[in-house]
Amino acid sequence: MTTVILDTVGLIALWNRSDQWHAAATAAFLALDPKTTRLVTTTYVLLECGNAAARRPYRDKVIAIRDGLSQAGDLYEPTPQDLEQAWIDYARGLAGSAGIVDHVSFAVMRRLGLAEVFTNDRHFTAAGFTILF
C-alpha cells in the first residue's frame, strides 16, 4: 500500500473548478487507486484549506474530508518535534523558502517515511518529495 499525503494546493485545485490546476488535479486524483493508495494529511493542511474555502461553495468538502480522514485514523496532528523542525527549516529558508505549513508537512512526511504528495507545489520537489501533478 502506498501512502500519499494531501496538500492544500492539491485539494483546493481538486475542489475549485475555476482553479488553473483543476483538470490536472482531477486527473491525478482519479489515477489514485483506492485499493492500493492510502490518503492522509495533517490538521494544519486542513486548517489552511478551511481558511481558503471559508466563503466558497466547496466549504463542505473540507469538513467531509476532515471527518473521513479523522474516522479512518489518517489525519495527523504534528508532534512538537515536527513543529520545532519545521520552524528551524522555515527560518533557514529551506525548500525554496516554502511556507510554514509546507515545512510542517515535510517534517511529518519524513517522520512517517512518506515520499509522494498530492500537489503540484514545487516546494515539495525542492524538499525531496514526489509531487503527483
Report on the architecture of this protein.
There is one protein chain. The protein has 8 helices and 5 strands, in the order E-H-H-E-H-H-E-H-H-H-E-H-E. By secondary structure, it is of the alpha/beta class. It has a single domain (2-131), classed as Rossmann fold, CATH 3.40.50. Strand 4, helix 8 (122-126) and strand 5 form a beta-alpha-beta unit. The radius of gyration is 14 Å and the shape is globular. It starts with a strand and ends with a strand. The model has no long low-confidence stretch (mean pLDDT 98).
User: Which value, in Å, is the CA radius of gyration?
Assistant: 14 Å
For this structure, the CATH topology is Rossmann fold
Q: Count helical runs.
A: 8
What's the average pLDDT? 98
Q: What about the largest sheet?
A: 5 strands, parallel
Write the element-wise H/E pattern from the N-terminal end onward: EHHEHHEHHHEHE
Strand order across the largest sheet: 3-2-1-4-5
**Secondary structure: helix percent:** 55-70%
What amount of the residues lies in strands? 5-15%
Unreliable residue stretches: none
**Class computed from helices, strands and strand pairing:** alpha/beta
Number of strands: 5
CATH class: Alpha Beta
CATH superfamily: 5'-nuclease
Q: How many separate domains make up the residues?
A: 1
Shape: globular
**N- to C-terminal separation?**
20 Å
| CATH architecture descriptor text | 3-Layer(aba) Sandwich
